[in-house]
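As noted in the main text, all predictions were made from sequence alone. Below is one such record, for DUF4371 domain-containing protein.
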Amino acid sequence: MTFFAETTPSLEKKTHKSVQQAEIKLAGYFAEHNIPFLASDHLTDLLKEIFPDSDIAKVMSIKRTKTTAIIKNVIGATQKNELANILRNVHFSILTDESTDIGTIKTSCVVVRYHDKSSKRIESTFWELHNVFDTNNPSSATAEHVYNGLIKTLGDFNIPLSNIIGFGSDGYNVMMGENNSVASLLRVS
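Prediction:
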């Protein structure tokens, strides 16, 4: 006697996958249109009311915490991996600028600029926010600390440093100084 596995996914599995896809699309919509994530706290209840016959709406549950997690861990991670795949195969420049947030945490926004072969355009794309200094040690805001953080993130994604062809920043001495700056450390490496 032979037993055959079911070849099509069960309705429950299909619904689960459809719910995941719907939640990802909704989170992406919130991010793309700059809608406060707080609004997602009320959205699923509204969708269940509007579409009472929808199996997807019945099961869907996306509040602000889940919206944030999806944007950061699914959409953001996927975008960063796709960008890393591109950067492994093209020459690119790094652009960075520092900013201090309301909590007095100084971060550096890192943008990469490269030629995208598919669109035949120069693209400038967000890479990451990088802490300029350790939160418990403001004196760690050194060129070496910033450089090591930048090199680590590129290394984590196996992006060769030899693909870097340019570096741009403001005139801050730690970033662009002639000696012991991020720019001078990049030139050496």
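The two ends are 66 Å apart (CA to CA). The mean pLDDT is 85. These features were considered when defining construct boundaries for the mutagenesis experiments described in Section 2.9.
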